[in-house]
Prior knowledge:
Blueprint: H1 11-21, E1 28-31, H2 33-46, E2 51-55, H3 62-70, E3 74-77, H4 80-88, E4 96-98, H5 105-113, E5 118-121, H6 124-133, E6 138-142, E7 151-153, H7 163-175, E8 179-184, E9 189-191, H8 195-215, E10 221-223, H9 239-254, E11 260-263, H10 267-270, E12 274-284, E13 293-297, E14 317-318, E15 325-331, E16 340-350, E17 358-362, E18 383-386
Parallel strand pairs: 1-18, 2-3, 2-11, 3-4, 5-6, 6-8, 8-10, 10-11, 13-15
Antiparallel strand pairs: 1-12, 7-9, 12-13, 12-17, 14-17, 15-16
Helix pairs in contact: 2-3, 5-6, 7-8, 8-9
Amino acid sequence: MSIKVEDYYPRETFNKMKAFADQHETPFVVIDTAIISQAYDDLRAGFDFAKVYYAVKANPAVEIIELLKDKGSSFDIASIYELDKVMSCGVGPERISYGNTIKKARDVRYFYEKGVRLFATDSEADLRNIAKAAPGSKIYVRILTEGSTSADWPLSRKFGCQTDMAMDLLILAKQLGLVPYGISFHVGSQQRDIDVWDAAIAKVKVIFERLKEEDGIVLQMINMGGGFPANYITRTNSLETYAEEIIRFLKDDFGDELPEIILEPGRSLIANAGILVSEVVLVARKSRTAVERWVYTDVGKFSGLIETMDEAIKFPIWTEKKGEMEEVVIAGPTCDSADIMYEHYKYGLPLNLASGDRLYWLSTGAYTTSYSAVEFNGFPPLKSFYL
Length: 387
């Protein structure tokens, strides 16, 4: 398998990023913010009626927060620490949603005291905490959706509740003095099957209708989460195609008078903007007759590549070395046997690859720095640079 840079970046863009990378010691991620800016514009063009809440967990860099703030984005926040960082960049509470359904009561109070009034929930215990700590706030309930088999990074089971419970929670929210505002779902990150949005939106439509007819509750918002794709080895449809199909699904169920629509992109905005640069530490075989080589790099699961767990996300890997290719196992530098990125999915790398050569992991702007361990085996967090 030979990766062509031109399939992922304009050659001029890649050359600029590589020239910068050549001046720094590995491992690190270099991110071109111009790519993020264009991705945001493309998403807004595709969904011109929707509000964008950037999922800060994808990459919480101040450079990215300030860029998206200036472009008019709102922000999906998962913790008080993200909240402090985003608000320190000048983002007002009216542009913030507390999207984590698992939260301490005192953290809810902290958000409320900072002025945030939009909260996600999926359980009665959490809802009652919100009612006490953030009275009068707007509530949206996250529902369970299918799509785990077609998403490269599924987000099912831990978050969300069944349809009947979602309705019960919204009724209870009204009784507790909260505002039952809407429904959210997430079809899974790097979702390749666009049709799963159709099923999710149909579920939401049922909830909207039943609450209105049976309980007089008029919901106003659908939060469709993220799931839009980045440019990895397994290719997907274009964002334009995603937008056309999802808008068709929305209009089939809700007509031309759509409720407020929120999108929570993370990966699709920033993944393509990053290149993770690593160095080959060793190339070895396990026996004299072993067919496979093991390529050990100075970056691994614990330093930014956790999404290679179960080989879920398959990053394009490029090297300057040329020549005959051979299948390899790719592993990280730590003293942990789990630190193997690719063993079953066979990457091909040049036979003449050697210690000291660089590997360029493309489309790594999302969930690399934010997943990097603080000091596992003493390795420092993954460095990042923003152009």
